Amino acid sequence: MTDSSADIDAFLAKIPGPARSSLESLRAVIKKTAPDAVEKIGYGVPAFSYLGRPLVSFGAGKKHCSFYVQSPEVMRRFAAELHGLETSKGTVHFQPGTTLPDSLVEILVRARMTETEEAASK
Predict the structure, then answer these.
(1) Which stretches of the chain are assigned E, i.e. beta strand?
(2) Chain segment 90-122, per-residue pLDDT in tens
(3) Which of 18, 42, 83, 120 could form a disulfide with 51 if both were Cys (CB 3.0 to 4.6 A apart)?
């Protein structure tokens, strides 16, 4: 069995400095908000699972970093909080060297945890 945290550390080590710093900050907020979530590499990017189900993930492209919320419903529910940010169906994009507000990440992660708990209880 591999050490998933080490896999994510290795993934981040390959990312250029400004983007790596942004993603390391995002990772820390996710870990603080969802301490019971399990880190892993999923679909080629760092990801967190909760109750055995996908929670959130993140990555970096050539021109932006991405926080994959993985829920169009959560994105719709928090559209006001996401106003002014570059978003797509289930993703928030941001510039390397910047960070998303911790409070926003916490809100989105908690909402995903609630969705996951509700799905797991069915």
Answers:
(1) 38-42, 45-50, 53-60, 65-68, 86-88, 91-94
(2) 999 999 999 999 999 999 999 999 999 999 998
(3) 120
